[in-house]
Amino acid sequence: MENSTLLIKIKQRLNKLDSQDYDNIECWQFIEAFNKAQIEWCRRNLHGGNMYKEGDELSKKRIDDLQPLLRELSLTGTVTDTYFETNNFPEDQYLEFKRVTTQATDECCPEPRSMTVYLAEEANVPLLLRDPLKNPDFDWGETFCTMLNNTIRIYRNPSFNIVNPVLTYYRKPVLIEIPGCVNPYTGVESIFNVNCEFKDDLVEVILDDTAALIAGDIENQYQQQRGTAAAERNN
């Protein structure tokens, strides 16, 4: 959907367009509200904090809506006796963890074999390493990983090596920009047009969230309630 269409639709939700009641809302405010609505929609639907209690990949619709944000990153790092620790991380665009996959080798099996990697809590690492049913085991093809300080630790033992680890994650949606409008994140006037990357039916839902945000900012309670209800009903 073109940004010019976005602006018309947002004004229509707030204004009935012809009334011009809220034409004093500046262009950058529309951009900031829409980009904020994108992030809020993603967090709400990744977590399942919507009226249908559906998180990511819990339905065909969620898979379809969120798949443009899934990315893979090959991980590099350093090795200790107990874990492989990454030295790269998608800091700027990272939104939410999805999974870590890896392979492993040992002296008897030089050909990499697939390992099942579970995400664990950092507080439980000592317990997991002591537990014979949960600690890293090459024969069973299972291990676990933790996250801290924008690094990922994939646990191992001295009998096998971690190879070819990959992080799958959700990135942040692309922020829209409109030429001639001041970018609210940089304070510089945008010279490029950046459209929303989501499909048009999802953009319509995000537009209702956007209108609700702006209506709340200008203390228009009726329009705020209408926008919020429409966004959830059509989500």
Structure description:
The chain is α+β, with helices and mostly antiparallel strands and 235 residues long. Helix content is 33%, strand content 24%. The chain has 6 helices and 8 strands, in the order αααβββββαβββαα. The chain has an 8-stranded mixed β-sheet with strand order 1-8-4-5-6-7-3-2, with no helix packed on it. A hairpin with a 3-residue loop joins strand 2 and strand 3. Helix 2 packs across helix 5. The longest helix is centred in the first third of the chain and has 21 residues. It is elongated. The protein starts with a helix and ends with a helix.
Key features?
235 residues, alpha+beta, eight-stranded mixed β-sheet, 6 helices
Query: Percent of residues in helical segments?
Result: 25-40%
Order of helices and strands: HHHEEEEEHEEEHH
**Oligomeric form of this entry?**
single chain
Number of helices, counting only DSSP H or I runs of 4 residues or more:
6
Shape: elongated
Total strands: the figure is: 8
Describe the structure concisely.
The chain is of the alpha+beta class. The chain is 33% helix and 24% strand.
Topology:
Blueprint: H1 3-15, H2 27-47, H3 60-66, E1 70-74, E2 77-79, E3 83-86, E4 94-106, E5 113-119, H4 125-130, E6 142-148, E7 151-155, E8 160-171, H5 200-217, H6 221-233
Parallel strand pairs: 5-6
Antiparallel strand pairs: 1-8, 2-3, 3-7, 4-5, 4-8, 6-7
Helix pairs in contact: 1-5, 2-5, 5-6
